[in-house]
Structure formats: C-alpha cells, structure tokens
Amino acid sequence: MSEVIVITSGKGGVGKTTTTANVGTGLAQLDKKVVLIDTDIGLRNLDVVMGLENRIVYNLVDVVEGNCRMKQALIKDKRYPNLSLLPSAQTRDKSAVSPGQMVKLIDSLREDFDYILLDCPAGIEQGFKNAIAGADRALVVTTPEVSAIRDADRIIGLLGANEVRQTDLIVNRLRMDMVKRGDMMNINDVTDILAINLIGAIPDDEQIVISTNQGEPLVGTDCLAGKAFANICHRILGENVPLLDLEIKSNLWGKFKDIFKKN
Amino acid sequence: MSTPVVLKSNRYGINLILDSEMGFDELLGCIAKRFQESAGFFKDARLAVSFEGRELTQEEEFRIVEAITDNSSIEVICILDNDILREEMIRQKIEQFEEEQSGRTGEFYKGTLRSGQVLDCESSIVILGDINPGAKIISKGNIVVLGALKGNAYAGASGNCQAFVAALEMDPIQIRIGDIIGRSADRTASDRTLLGKKRGKKKQEAAEPQVAIVKDGNIYIEPITKGLLNSI
Fold it and tell me: What residues of A are in contact with residue B115 (Cβ under 8 Å)?
C-alpha cells in the first residue's frame, strides 16, 4: 500500500521544495518507487531543483484537464529510474485544480508507487487545500525562527482538522554555532512549542545552495545535511535512527551560558 | 419566414440560411443589411461561406459574396457546398492558406517574456527582448528573438517542421518545431561552478546568433551563416 506524504510549512522559503527533492531522492535510493508531485501551480520550481526542467512537456493541470495521459506527464529522474516527477503548470494558477481532482489524481498513482510526495505551496489557501486533500501523512518543515514556528503551528492545526493521520516535524537550517551562543532556538525549544514528533533536524549547509542551483539533490552525500536527509528517509520507513550529532564541542563558557539561559 | 437571412457559424465560417420564396434582389438587399448590422461583430474576419435553403446559380452566389464584402470588412476565402468531401478538401485548403500566411507575415513584440508568460501567435513573430526560463513563445510560423532565448520556444505550432527559431543568444530549455521536441543538455556534475563558468565563457566569446532547424527528424542549433540561411 502506498503512502501519500505532503511536505508543507505555511511560511515560504523554509525549505519545502528542497526537502521534497531530497527526501524523494533518498527514498528512491532505498529502492522505493517514488513520485514527486509539485502542487505549486504558477510558481513551480521542484523541477528546477531536481534538474528536470528541460524535460517538461505536459504537467499536472494537463493531466487533470485530460489533455494528456498520466504516463505522458510523468518525468523519469535522470539518476534513479524508480523516481518520477509530475511537474506543475507555470502558466496557470491554483484555481486550475480542485481538492477533489487532486484526490482522484493521487488515487490513480497509488497502484504504481510506494511513496507519493506532494510539494505544497506556501500559504493556507487553495494551493494548500489541494495539496493536503489526498495526503495520509504530513512533514511540516520549519526553521528555528519565531515567524516560521508560528506558521508551522497554524499548519499543524489545519492538518489535524483535515484528518491527516500523522504529522511529523523537520527543523531545517539549524545553525549550531548560533544555538550555542543562545542566538537561535535549539531543537528542544522548537519541539516544546509545536509538540509533535520530530523526524529530523537539518543543519544549515552551503552545500544545499550549491546542490539546489545544480539541480542535483545532495541526500546520501557526505555532508551533514545529506546525512540528515538520508536519516529522515530511514525514519519514514519506520526504522529507528538516532538523531545526528550536530553539536560543536562546547567550551566551559558555553556551558555556563546554557545554565543561565535555563534559569 | 420571419427573417429572410439567418447566419449560422460553423467551423470554417458562416452558413447563410436563405428564404426560399423571396425575390432574389429583395433577398440581396436583406443580406446586405444583415451584414451591415453585424460588420462590427465580424470585423475583418476571414471566412468561408456556404448557403442553405435555396438553389442559387453561380452568378447569384457571386452577387451575394459581393454584397457581403461590400457591406463589411469580411474577407470571403471561398464558397462552400454543403458536402462532406468538399468540406474536407476545403479545410485542407484553408489550413494550407493559413500556414503559408503564418510563414510569410509576422508580428512584433517588444518586451521581455517572464516566467509563466505565454505569447501565442498565428503568424511568425519577432521579439525585441528576452524569453526568460519558464516563459513560452508559440508561433504557427517562425520565431526570431532579438535577445536571449532562455525559456521554451514552439515554432510551426500547426505542425510545420519547416519553421525555424533564431535567437541572438540561444540558451533554451526546450525548443519545439512542428512535432519534434529538443531539450537542453543536462548539467553534469563536472560543471560545478556552472553559474560562474557560464558567465565567464560568455564574456570571453560574445554570444553568437544561432538558429534552430529540423534536420532528419532532429532539432539542430547552428550558427547563422549565409549558406544555412539559403537552405531554410
């Protein structure tokens, strides 16, 4: 039975698309059949991050409107044959598709894939409603910033109201040096506020920017972010993997500071 | 019959349903009046015309067409019989006519097409500006970009593989000519510094105008040379 996972955040720019690309690629590396669906109609970029932009002929809206068959619109990844992408339309807007149509579209893919990942647009309007309509499970991406966490909290509430049965949290763009200095919230602060299961924490890594520009997800590579994404994939499969040690060795002064912070 | 002339549109133009009893000259007057009234609606449409409800001699048909063109700016391409075989032939003629037109005439567009914008034209098009990634230019004829083509271009959209796409700076994501699609090469891991490298390269050798054409079922992009232009 396939699992439909929506990657969402509420706030824009926290890393939904990057997470979708990397988790999708990571699951494909684990020999799962995966399809990524870009639901950000009008502002698509999952295809760019995956480096598949030049292959697009048909898109999600074409499938929904019956201009083509699903098979024609699905793009095979250039590295993993068991990974496909259904790109979104660039020249339309969110109202081109309804939640009901999304559910139907997702159901038609369930047979052929183990994991269906939906890259959700920012916001809580039609695009968000389309993306979560068919989802069994959600990954909420946030950064350790109050604004992103506020939005994530709202999203978690909306997901609950829409009967998504499991919601997990990804804390993205952690900067351990700043956490150490007490200038950034740490993972525990975030999970205290949001009170849902943490499925992974990803350090801020310049390799991410490079890989995104290049159109090659970095999951599985040696850098910390690559490892963190690979671990998330294992946890999605239900394996128990300990959290990566992102800590930089703390000195005595840092420890003092921590103590005072807590009081 | 309350109205002596009824206009009905079909795929290629309009069908005139005529009163069968009225005297021809009186009818002609009604037709003229009818088209005068709807001249604004048809503007300078190019149509095929067919008749129904009355036997007409060839001369009468011509007089009616004359009445139509005199009283509106409609261009009547041909007169249709209500006959399927002929209709098919005429459809081909019209499409051929349109295709010839689209190759020969052109439009101008000044401005940059940005991501998500689509410019769709019936004829060939010259663009004074760039086509950015995510933007699309579609033409039934040829496409000439006086700027950088970095998005998608679709020439010969009615299936004409003889069409071409030319650009001062050719860096498209996809080019489609007729029903043949060509996509840009994938970036390999070896051009790690892709952004820097590309820019550096362009500074060294100024971007060269290139043209994309179909050869043996594939799309080729080549520098514009006299020999090549003659072969198009």
Answer: 90
B168 and B215 in a single domain? The answer is yes
Largest CA distance in chain A: 65
List phi, psi (to 5°) of B55: -80, 130
List the end-to-end C-alpha distance of chain B, in Å, as a whole number.
57
Could you tell me if A215 lies within 8 Å of chain B, comparing CB atoms?
yes
Which tens digits make up the pLDDT trace of A203-245?
Answer: 999 999 999 999 999 998 989 999 999 999 999 999 998 888 7
Are A137 and A160 spatial neighbours (Cβ–Cβ below 8 Å)? no
B186 in contact with A at a CB cutoff of 8 Å? yes
User: What's the CA dihedral at B182, A69, A31, A211 to 10 degrees?
Assistant: 40
The complex's ipTM works out to 0.72
**Residue B40 resides in a domain:** yes
Shared-domain flag, residues B31 and B121: no
Task: Tell me the whole-structure pTM to 2 decimals.
Answer: 0.72
Q: Give contacts of A53 with chain B, Cβ < 8 Å.
A: 133, 173
Q: Which residue segment(s) compose the domain that B46 sits in?
A: 5-82
- By CB atoms closer than 10 A (0-12, 13-18, 19+), residue B121 is middle
Closest CA to B46 of B78, B71, B16, B15: B78
Q: Is A91 on the interface with B (CB under 8 A)?
A: yes
Q: Between chains, do A91 and B118 touch, taking CB under 8 Å as contact?
A: yes
B17 occurs within a structural domain = yes
* Assigned domain for B217 exists: yes
Question: What domain count does chain B have?
Answer: 2
Residue of B nearest to A91 (CA): B116
Inform me whether the C-beta atom of residue B197 falls under 8 Å from chain A C-beta atoms. Answer: no
Domain with B198 in it: what CATH number? Answer: 2.160.20.70
Backbone φ, ψ for residue B184 (5° rounding): -70, 160
Looking at the structure, tell me whether residues B111 and B181 fall in a common domain.
Answer: yes
CATH number given to A3-262 = 3.40.50.300
Determine the distance in angstroms separating the CA of A64 from the nearest CA of chain B, rounded to an integer. 19
* Chain B touched by A55 (CB under 8 Å): yes
